Every structure is written in C-alpha cells, then in structure tokens.
Amino acid sequence: MTIRLLTAGESHGKGLVVVLEGFPAQLRITSEDINVELARRQKGYGRGGRMLIEKDQVEILSGVRRGVTIGSPITLFVKNKDYENWEKIMTPDPTKESIGNPLQRPRPGHADLSGGLKYNQRDLRNILERASARETTMRVAAGAVAKKLLNHFGILIQSYVCELGPILAKSPLLFATNLNKRADLSPVRMLNKDSEKRAMKQIDLAKAKGDTLGGVFEVVMTGVPPGLGSHVQWDRKLDGKLAQALLSLQAVKGVEIGEGFKNARKFGSQVHDEIFYEKRKGYFHRTNRAGGIEGGMSNGEPIIVRVAKKPISTLRKPLRSVDIKTKEPIKAAYERSDTCALPAASVIGEAICAWVLADAFLEKMGGDFMDEITNRFKSYLSHIKKF
Ligand code: EPS
Description:
Blueprint: E1 4-8, E2 15-21, H1 31-42, H2 50-53, E3 58-62, E4 64-65, E5 68-69, E6 74-79, H3 83-90, H4 112-119, H5 125-131, H6 136-152, E7 156-164, E8 167-168, H7 179-185, H8 193-208, E9 215-222, H9 238-247, E10 252-257, H10 260-263, E11 275-278, E12 282-285, E13 293-294, E14 297-298, E15 303-309, E16 320-322, E17 329-331, H11 342-365, H12 370-386
Bound molecules: ligand EPS.
Ligand EPS binds near residues 314 and 341.
C-alpha cells in the first residue's frame, strides 16, 4: 500500500475527519475541489431529513499550503451541523445530565446487534453512530483528492445507477467522457428518463409504506493505463482491492467486475476479449467483457465495476427484533433515515474506486512529487508504445 486513509467520527458527533498519508507533493487541491464532490454525495431522490440539516464543507487542517500539497499527511475535517441537536447525548465529556434512553432494539440488517455483542455495548447507539453511512462523507473527501491526482494523468472516474429496486435502467452504449454530467442531472443518477420516472415512483411507494430500497450502480474508470495491480500475489490484484474497498461501503453486498456473472453462464469462446494491434493504437480489444482487468491487472480498457447495495436497514415500519434488556420480542428501533441512498452510494463508489486506483497508480509509477511521477508515467507510456 503506497497511500493510506483513516477516517474517524460519529454520525452525530462534532464532526468527521480523514487523514491521508503518502500523497505526493505538488498536487494542486483546494477546499472547493473537495466541496464539489461532497455536494454530489448529498443529493439524490429518497434521502431523509438529515441532508436538509447538513451542508458538508471541508476544512483542510494539514498537508496543503496555498492550494498545493507538500507531501505531509493531509487532514480533512467536516463539521456535523446536527451536533448542536445531539450535544447532550453525544458529548465526550462526563456530564450529570441524562444521556437519553439507551437504544436496545437492534435493527435487523444493521451493525447494532453484532457490534453490541462484540464491544459489550448495551446502548446500541455506541455502535450505530460509527456504523452510519455518514462516515462516507470523508471517503468522498479522500476520493476528491485521489480524483485530482488521477485527472492529472487523464484518468476519469464516473458512475450511474443501473438498477433501483426492481426497476432496470438502460446502460449507456458508449462510455462518453460526459457520463457524470448526464447522471448528475438525474435525481436517481439514471441515464434514461423513462426508468428515472419509474424509479422515483418506486421510491415514493417505499416511502409511503415505511420501507426502503437498494439497487445496483456501476462505476466506470477510463484512461487507466495497462499494468496497474499485479498477477504475482493475491493481495496485489487490482480486482481484489477494488472489491474489498467497495464491500467496505455501508450496505454493499455484492461487487461484479465487468460481466462477471453473465460470463459465468457462457462458453469461454463467448467470454474472452480478443486481442488486436494497430500501429497508431497499439494493443486493444474490441469487446470489454472482462471489465478492464485481466490477471489482477488493468488491461488498458475501461474498468467497469457493478455494485449491489441492499435496502437501508432502518425501517419506519420495523421488522421483528428482541429487546436486549428484557429479551422480549419487540419491533426494531426506528430513527430518521433515508428511503433510498443509492444515488449517493454511486458517488461514494466513485470515490472509493478513485482511492484504490490512485494507490495502484502511485505504486506502479512511484515518486514523491508530481513532476517526478509525470516523468515516470511518460517513460512507462513510451515503453508500452514500443512493446
Ligand atoms: C447519512 C447520515 C445519516 C443517515 C444515513 C446517511 O443521518 P441520520 O442518521 O442523522 O438521519 O441519513 O445513514 C444511514 C442510512 C444509516 O443507516 O446509518 C449521510 O450523511 O449520508
């Protein structure tokens, strides 16, 4: 691992922090670059009341001087505006005041029960506060920095929603550079107006029923040079790293690289992407069923990952659970949440992939400052051209 990332912070605590370690010097980055991505994460049809309270704005605490990285750890901070309403409950200081009723009705599907058992916490708030997807604010902030680096080398990371609950959306025929421009215009990040309408209706239906919805989004990475990741060891494989990182996103239950599951039902001759060569283009494939990764390495084609997110587990019409104090059957706890956070998840997915790709890119190219990395990148590209 060349670069490291650690997030901290509770959903209703004072704020959220991320420390990025190992990022090269000389990268141009401003709060505004990060805020644009944070705002994208806050959007989406089906979100709950919290997004009306927050307007996530980053404060850069270290690692950047006058809009340029200096090679030291980059620390980013985002304030939770809602803390004002939670201070009595969430304050780190011992206080005589009551901290409110302990939460003791674990939600099926959430971290509540497993976390309570593991950390011996009888107030399950001590688990849910950190398990909350509010944490993804900082992964998006980190992803914004990673995207800045990748963009410098012509690598673009975009996403769209392809399935929302039972609604299937059409995939784009071409992965144009304006994929995000189009998806960002849709309240559900779908590229097709008809599916968008149907998806929004489905969210309305879920909301009316006190229920929630998940779905599938796709992240598309273009301009990735061949040779990121490695075939030589299990933990250096790029597909493995992407899958691990994406599965660490709250509520994600499945990751597919390219046409992974479809391919499993076909003959090999119908699956593998044949190799061609043209003097101007170099080596290329006419199909991309592998999703841009072969042997754990990028192969120069767009990297495509599909990610399945389960419906949010906080239900207004709760499922059956057990009171951890009385051991009596009881309905699970409910507190404000989203009906559907899939469009936001797709933006977070971009950030997560950006981080993994930036790490793989820096591992391959090496270097501690941008000019050094640029020279190495150019030399690698000319090696590929001659190969
Ligand atoms: C989120 C903030 C949370 C939830 C959501 C994501 O805020 P609150 O709990 O105050 O409503 O909206 O978290 C969950 C869905 C979850 O299960 O924890 C955010 O900032 O994205």
